[in-house]
Task: inverse folding
């Protein structure tokens, strides 16, 4: 008898859809309050999940969903650098 492995689901803070953890990007607040994109999904810190699309990122920025999830104010420069990184990942 084989056990069925449960796939972890996460909610996108942009569109609100539930998807598998592997399909999503993790935005992380480190212990030093630095906001980074966690490609591995294993770094320590508080994380928030986004779909791999510009639209979801823009929705999260507009609604301040990222700030609410990470419990920290995010400067405009950080949003811009995150947007560039997401753009690279969406293309590649």
Result:
């Amino acid at each position: 008898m084989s056990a069925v492995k449960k796939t972890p689901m996460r909610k996108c803070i942009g569109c609100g859809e539930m998807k598998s953890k592997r399909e999503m990007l993790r935005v992380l607040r480190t212990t030093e309050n630095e906001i980074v994109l966690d490609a591995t999904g294993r770094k320590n810190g508080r994380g928030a999940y986004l779909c791999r699309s510009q639209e979801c990122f823009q929705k999260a920025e507009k609604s301040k969903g990222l700030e609410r999830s990470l419990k920290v104010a995010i400067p405009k420069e950080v949003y811009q650098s995150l947007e560039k990184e997401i753009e690279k990942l969406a293309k590649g």
In short: The longest strand covers residues 25-29. The chain is about 35% helix and 20% strand. The two ends are 40 Å apart (CA to CA). The domain at 10-91 is CATH 3.30.1230.10 (Hypothetical Cytosolic Protein; Chain: A;).
